[in-house]
Amino acid sequence: MKVIHVVESFAAGVLHFVVQLTHAMPDAEHIVIHGERPDTPPCYAALFPAGVTLIPWQHVTRDIAPVHDSLALYYLMRLLKQQTGDVIHLHSSKAGFLGRLAIGLLRLPARVIYTPHGAAFLRQDVSPAKQALFIWLEKFGHWCSGQVIACSASEAASFQTSGIPAAYISNGIRCETTVTQRPDTAANGLCRIVLVGRISQQKNPALFNDIAQAFVEQPTVRFIWIGDGELRHLLTSPNIECTGWIEPAEVATHLQQADIYLSTSLWEGLPLSALQAMCQRLPLVLSECTGHVDIVQAGVNGYLFQQIDGAVSAIQTLVADQTLRERLGDASRELLEQQFTVQRMVESYQSVYQK
After folding, report:
1. Least confident of 61-70, 175-184, 238-247, 327-336
2. Do 2-172+341-354 and 185-339 share a fold?
3. What does DSSP assign to residue 232?
4. Domain ranges, ordered by start, for the chain
5. Fold for domain 2-172+341-354?
6. What CATH class is the domain 185-339?
7. How far apart are CA 91 and CA 138, in angstroms?
8. pTM of the entire structure?
9. In the prediction, which pLDDT does 182 show?
10. Residue 221, Cα to own-chain centre: how many angstroms?
């Protein structure tokens, strides 16, 4: 089987997703047509298995830009005419729209799958008018070609609510290195609360900062943001440490040494970083948004919150009770192994590809 992946957002979770998929399907031939972003790792080619063909996609950008979008569509059509595949898998909203438009214009016979990884119309940093535009673009793209396969049940539901048919295959990860026992807060004197991701509007760093500020008078409670981004200047609370971009092995080490995983995101598809935290037996304190609601069972493996007071209360409860943290952390790992493994994800995609 020959699978052509088309990716605009070639960084962070989407890049990790495509890397996982190509590693887990060694019997297929993979061609990856990709854009680049400022946070695309410089040595991204080394992440992929041998035999994967990487083809740069010129002029593609994250935001709507008519001139660049027209050029990106032209170059994508040229690339797709040069390749023949059994399946074309489009990743993220921009690739999803331009890819389906290109495939519709070329009338390609391949099976077309589109995974949004956090649909653009879910964005909370744009106006209602722009959200409506994104919904219209999604409807037009669906009319052109392809099947929407969301990466969580809640993301699929958001498409269905907007009048767009969608199925879903939950994201999954390979959980290998894992901590067997959480740190003893009483022994080491610290309770570490971590978040992994780009410091962008989507992740809501202003709220993360406000939550950390509520614990300034508790010196044993520390907040760690693993990642970097354009809004780093918003993380001003003195109890926040920002690591910048670090290697995956270092991320795993930070998660193993942590006590609680916190996410303040405004919207998600289904965050791989939170799944990694579940692998390391961390209780979750997540904002109530698409993607998050699929991985938190309230009071079982963590808590969802809508306002800052809910987040602060949940963290205070967990900081004060190590036994509760361990119980919820164990439940996180159990839920991961039941529903969010890479094996389960890949088997589902293979089934869709082969139909």
Report:
1. 175-184
2. yes
3. G
4. 2-172+341-354, 185-339
5. Rossmann fold (3.40.50)
6. alpha beta
7. 13
8. 0.89
9. 56
10. 27
